Each structure stands twice: as C-alpha cells, then as structure tokens.
C-alpha cells in the first residue's frame, strides 16, 4: 500500500513538473540523468504557471498536502505572487465532490428520508469546498434561521491514513539515518500531526470545540463564534449558523467599508494570545479561509471564526515557559531566554549559556523596532534553525501546532496591516497575564478555588491538630525506643555471628579428630559443642 502511494505521489509531482521548481544548482548531473532515464514521466502541464501546477498537484494528492498548501498561502513574504495567489484557492475553493452524494450522507446521518423534513431552501451547489469537507447552505424549518451544513468528503479517512502512514515510515527512516534525527524527533511530530488531523474527521468534536471557544469569548468585541445546532450534529455532518462576514483576505473590501485595519490586526494578535495563555485552548487552523470580519461596526472590527476541527492545548508547564520566553524575548533579555531553554530541557543541560545567549542575540536583535513589512522572516527562520542545530535544541512535538498557528497569525498581520509592531502589541498582554498568574489576584483565586475543600475539612481541624501535637510530644520517646530496638538488633546479630563462627570452628575440629582417629569421646564432645553453638546462633537471629 505504501509503495503504491509513494509511486502515485512521485507520478503526480513529475506529471505536474514540480521538479522544475528546484533551482538548477541543486540538481547535479546524476539527478538530471535519473529524471530522464528512470523517472521519465513527462510534464503534462507545461503551459500552466508554476503556482497553478503546484496547486493542482496538491489538490490531486489530497487533504494532507492541501493543508500544507493552506499554511504556505499565508506567507506571501516567502513566496512569489503567482504561487501565493494560487495556493490561497486551497483555503475554500477546492474542487467539490458530487452534491448528490452529499445529500445522501446528510439524510443518512440525520436519519431523515428527505431534506425537506428539516430544511427548506437547500442549496445543491456547495457554498464552499475545502480539503476535508464541503458546505451547503439551507434554512431550518423549525425557526426559519439560515444555516450551513458541513459534510465530510466520502472515503476521506482512508486517503488520510494512507498518507500519514507513508509519512510515518519516511519519518522513521529520517530519524534513524539523519545526523539530527533524534533531535528533530520526526516520528513524534508526525504522530502529533496524525492525531490532530484524524480528530478533524470527527465533526462532533469540531462542534464541541466551537461551543467551548464560543463560551470563552462570550460577549467579546474581538471574536464571534457561530452557533452550533447540537441536535443536528453528527460525526460526519454538522449544522451551524450561517455567517455573512468579509473574508479576511479580501483587503480591498475591508478598506472599502473603512475598516480600522490597525485595530483589526492588533485584535488578531490579542485573540491568539488570549486563546493560548488565558484559555489554553486555541484555534489551530487559522488560515484566511476560516477567518472573516464582521460587516458591522467597521470602526470597531470583530473577527468571525469558523472550522474548529483542529484545536491545540497546552499544559501549565509549557504555557508558563512559553510566556516567560516571550516576555524575556520582548525585553531583549537573551540571557533569560537561554536559561529558560536549558531549564525546560529544550537544550542539553550542559549547554554553554553565554554562547547560546550570544547566538540568540545575533539572530533576534536585528528584527526589533521594525514593522512586519521590513522583517525577512524567511531569513530569520533559517538562522533560528541553524542556531537550534548548533546547540542540539530538541524539537517539542506538542508545540509544533502552536508554531504553525503563530505563523498563520503573523501572516494575517502582515496581510492586514504591514506596519503592525508585533512586539508592542503582544508584550502588554503577556505581562498582564504573568502578573495574574503570580500576583495577589492569583493567590486569592487559588484560595477561593480551595475554599470548598477547606470548608469540608474545617470541622476536623481541632482533632487533627490535637493528634498532631500529641504525636509531636510522643516523638522523642518513640525515637528513643526505636533507637534501643536497633541497638538490640545489632547486638543480637553480632552474637549470632560469634556463635556461628564458633560452631564452624568446632565442626572443623570434630572432623579432623575423626580423621586422625583420636578417641571417640573427643569427637562426640566437640560435636555436641558445635551443635550447641549452631543452636545459639539460630536463636539469636530468630
């Protein structure tokens, strides 16, 4: 199965001419020879642009590769305009599957004979189509509310599992044979990605995630989450409120309604850090196809988020280390950053902190006090990867999803307001969060959380206190008694050892007397003494 899939991937790449995107300096003669003699499949899309060929290839390969294209589409600073524009079509404009199949799946999942039982004005043509599912619009009969129905693509799980299985096999090979294999932990990274993308195939989980985030941002001016009709949600079909916002990538439309672009970009950063550090539950698929802007109050813009199939979580330890790293980074305290990496185990404990500090300073200092448009993040990322390799920094699989989301957010900020000062926007939020975690409010909050437990145990406190004091009073006596017992045990052991030595000696002498034919009463007498010594030794040990 893996070999077949690997052949198919290679065939698609060659037939779309993606090998031609590799610069000539990276293709030695033997690679060119193999391309012509072994991998001879011709490019069937020579007339198409590079971006279109790449998009078509990713669409052909399936959702795992489409997700990769979606992530790349947010980083126009790293791509040519042609490639970035074509890849942006992967966000919600993937070729749809047969609408008839979609209707059959909806009816089967909801247990109805006809869509008219629950819906009116069902639109056969998909409203949007993505890598995992497609969306149809309709109107609920019960309350006449406009909704969208999201339905999974047929047989999508098999395709994803086959691709992930292949990637896992490649990751094992890389981890075994690459010099940096153990440090990069590719197998664990792929396993984390596998768990994430398979979770996205459970639309009930997506509905639950959306409800959770909606509750976290209740009455928020920054983010609106559509309502999920949980009674009509199943593993492969969900029904949710239809929204009518402007796609966040449509900058022309946003400017036409006089949207406050600076505030919009700042709120994007605010929403991200709020989800990560306040809630520890963040939308991890924030590509432009899943983010809209409300048409209401353009002077006070509000995001609308959809597609909560992929969410990330952080434990308290990672969250704390991340926040401290960010704050130290914003304060340019590179020594603190280096020490935190060592304390958290992200770099070996024997790392030279001074050298590590200087390496981080060399990479990060040039990007401060610059707006996003003046920062070459491609160059920065390359330098950071080289620094990580130099100091044997271990990849943290649980943070890969967060890093991907951060790339999405930074790409959105660059798209909306290139002059955004990312550092000044994020720093106050993180500082306030840290104060809330370690300040008086945090202490009072913990006390309040433990009050029910304390109130339950309070009636028992006098008895517990009396018993504790009694135990403390008896403690010296008990210690003295235990000490005496230990001394007696030592004495008994010493006596047992003494008697055992005597018994062994008399036993040897008894045997010698018998061998040298001495009078019998000598042997018998010494034998009795030996037996007596053995008995005394056993008694002292028992």
What's this model, at a glance?
The protein has 21 helices and eleven strands. The protein has 542 residues and is of the alpha+beta class. The chain folds into four domains: 87 residues, no CATH class; 211 residues, Orthogonal Bundle (Transferase(Phosphotransferase), domain 1), CATH 1.10.510; 128 residues, no CATH class; 63 residues.
Structural features, described:
The chain is of the alpha+beta class. It has 4 domains: 87 residues, no CATH class; 211 residues, Orthogonal Bundle (Transferase(Phosphotransferase), domain 1), CATH 1.10.510; 128 residues, no CATH class; 63 residues. The protein is 61% helix and 7% strand. The strands form 3 sheets. Strands 1, 2, 3, 4 and 6 form a 5-stranded antiparallel sheet that branches. The protein has a 4-stranded mixed sheet with strand order 5-10-9-7. The radius of gyration is 35 Å and the shape is elongated. It starts with a helix and ends with a helix. The relative contact order is 0.07. The mean pLDDT is 78.
What order do the helices and strands come in, and which of them pair?
Layout: H1 2-15, H2 29-37, H3 50-61, H4 63-73, H5 81-88, H6 99-110, E1 119-120, E2 128-129, E3 133-140, E4 146-152, H7 156-177, H8 181-184, H9 186-199, H10 203-216, E5 223-224, E6 237-241, E7 246-247, H11 251-256, H12 261-279, E8 281-283, E9 291-293, E10 303-305, E11 311-313, H13 316-330, H14 334-343, H15 353-364, H16 377-390, H17 397-416, H18 422-438, H19 440-457, H20 461-515, H21 520-541
Parallel strand pairs: 5-10
Antiparallel strand pairs: 1-3, 2-3, 3-4, 4-6, 7-9, 8-11, 9-10
Helix pairs in contact: 1-7, 3-4, 3-5, 4-5, 7-9, 9-17, 12-17, 12-18, 13-14, 13-18, 14-15, 15-16, 18-19, 20-21
